[in-house]
């Protein structure tokens, strides 16, 4: 196939060894039934490593060479313009190759490449999944899968596969900011597959990224995420330029990690380092923790969306946390339609509890708090007085140990520092809680004149209520814990035993 973008020393594409590896693995192995072994394939690599060009040639090969009657090849993305990136490359290749057009009776149109030899079409589509129910894809390329905010389009495409005996689902992406869409799950599955933790003989993964322990600013490590490094001197120079800006301007660090190192990150201004956070996914054994002192907090920040209740324990210097969340049924429907968060999926997993109606059922939450207090007996329960007076008054009347948590940097800062130290040192256990991680990825701080920090709900791109509840619980624990002598112990001189 010909080059269609940029200036190159050859007219036609010369595959890089990394591309050869992917293409040979994808097309060189067959199932026992004679079809392709790998019906799903993921290529994850830093930007400007020709993944879109490779995807275009692969989809063209499937379209032209596999003789599928009425072939329907699609490129799909969150927006029409993104979906057309791969498709436009394929279209230009067809237009620049008369022999290809003649041999396979191809014709290009504004929104389609038609094949008159098999009666098929190659088209771009966007993420308005509700309009895609007539799909019957023989091959689908989902470009920049990290940007999909919901599973809708992926689910529609996958569910349409029943009529094809030899489908291909090709995922190509560079890392992106944390979203509740399919990418975190797909990334997790891919890494488990590469580590031999799961078996999936139909799924091919080629994943280029720097390692978790690598230094972001080490040029030697950059090659791991950029396989075309050795043949594209422009790429190396541009990464070096971006590194200088990322080192000097913290706001550009997240973008550098994502696009140049293929490393996951939260929002560019977010507080939490998700790499370190994910390492704290150790189990939270509630039966084992039950005898230990604990502290709790609830955040009733909204009547129409996420409400959080969280408990923390500190045992032998390690913070453990567990919590519950509620959303009203209408919020689940709204979020499913808008793609803002995967509430329906989290409800199915038991990570969020759904209450009926348009607003949160505070009676359900109060009953759950009473139930958990009977089980764990928290020393102090922190709460934000805004929107919580009714529940707080009833609980106080029944002698529950409530303490108002003042909403400001002076109150939050010690807790935020404690959690930062804990997760970066490995002294936090959150059980791999997906909803808490999503909230953590959204968290943007605000600062006062003394650089004390607090969660900023206005500037955070999505919900952070779960992290707010965590900070409030830790905040009252730091002040009221019977283990307060821990701090005295840390400050005291070492005494030989």
Structure description:
The chain has 497 residues and is an alpha/beta fold. The chain folds into two domains: 191 residues, Rossmann fold; 209 residues, Nucleotidyltransferase, domain 5 (2-Layer Sandwich). It has 19 helices and 17 strands. The strands form three sheets. Strands 3-4-5-2-6-7-1-8 form an eight-stranded mixed beta sheet, sandwiched between helices. Strands 9, 10, 11, 12, 13, 14 and 15 form a seven-stranded mixed beta sheet that branches. Strands 16-17 form a two-stranded antiparallel ribbon. Strand 4 and strand 5 form a beta hairpin. Helix 2 crosses helix 3 and helix 16 packs across helix 18. The longest helix is centred in the C-terminal third of the chain and has 17 residues. It is elongated, with a radius of gyration of 26 Å. The C terminus is likely disordered.
């Amino acid at each position: 196939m010909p080059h269609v973008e940029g200036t190159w020393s050859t007219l036609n594409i010369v595959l890089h060894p990394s591309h050869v590896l992917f293409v040979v693995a994808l097309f060189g192995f067959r199932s026992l039934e004679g079809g392709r072994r790998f019906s799903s394939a993921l290529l994850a690599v830093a930007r400007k490593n020709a993944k879109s060009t490779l995807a275009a040639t692969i989809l063209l090969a499937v379209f032209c060479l596999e003789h599928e009657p009425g072939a329907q090849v699609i490129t799909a993305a969150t927006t029409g313009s993104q979906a057309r990136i791969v498709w436009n490359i394929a279209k230009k290749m067809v237009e620049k190759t008369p022999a290809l057009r003649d041999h396979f009776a191809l014709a290009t149109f504004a929104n389609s490449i038609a094949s008159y030899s098999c009666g098929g079409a190659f088209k771009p589509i966007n993420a308005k999944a509700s309009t895609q129910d007539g799909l019957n894809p023989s091959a689908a390329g989902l470009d920049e899968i990290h940007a999909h905010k919901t599973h809708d389009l992926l689910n529609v495409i996958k569910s349409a596969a029943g009529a094809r005996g030899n489908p291909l689902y090709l995922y190509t992406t560079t890392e992106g900011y944390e979203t509740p869409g399919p990418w975190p799950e797909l990334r997790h599955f891919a890494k488990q597959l590469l580590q031999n933790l799961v078996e999936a003989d139909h799924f091919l993964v080629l994943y280029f990224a720097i390692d978790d322990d690598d230094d972001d600013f080490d040029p030697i490590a950059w090659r791991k995420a950029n396989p075309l490094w050795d043949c594209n001197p422009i790429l190396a120079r541009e990464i070096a330029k971006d590194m200088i800006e990322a080192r000097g301007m913290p706001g550009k660090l997240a973008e550098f990690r994502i696009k140049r190192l293929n490393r996951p990150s939260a929002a560019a201004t977010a507080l939490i380092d998700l790499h370190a956070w994910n390492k704290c996914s150790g189990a939270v054994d509630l039966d084992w923790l039950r005898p230990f002192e604990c502290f709790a907090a609830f955040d009733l920040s909204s009547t129409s969306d996420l409400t959080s209740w969280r408990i923390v324990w500190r045992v032998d210097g390690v913070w453990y946390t567990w919590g519950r969340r509620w959303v009203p049924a209408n919020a689940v429907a709204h979020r499913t339609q808008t793609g803002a968060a995967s509430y329906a999926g989290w409800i199915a997993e038991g990570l969020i509890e759904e209450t009926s109606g348009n607003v949160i059922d505070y009676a359900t939450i109060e009953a759950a708090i009473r139930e958990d207090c009977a089980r764990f007996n928290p020393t102090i329960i922190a709460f934000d007085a805004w929107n919580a007076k009714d529940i707080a008054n009833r609980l106080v009347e029944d002698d529950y140990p409530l303490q108002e948590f003042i909403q400001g940097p002076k109150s939050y800062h010690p807790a935020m520092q404690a959690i930062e130290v804990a997760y970066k040192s490995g002294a936090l256990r959150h059980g791999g809680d997906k909803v808490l991680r999503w909230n953590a990825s959204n968290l943007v701080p605000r600062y006062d004149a003394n650089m004390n920090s607090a969660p900023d709900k206005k500037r955070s791109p999505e919900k952070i209520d779960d992290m707010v509840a965590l900070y409030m619980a830790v905040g009252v624990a730091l002040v009221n814990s019977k283990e307060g002598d821990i701090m005295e112990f840390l400050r005291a001189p070492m005494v030989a035993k």
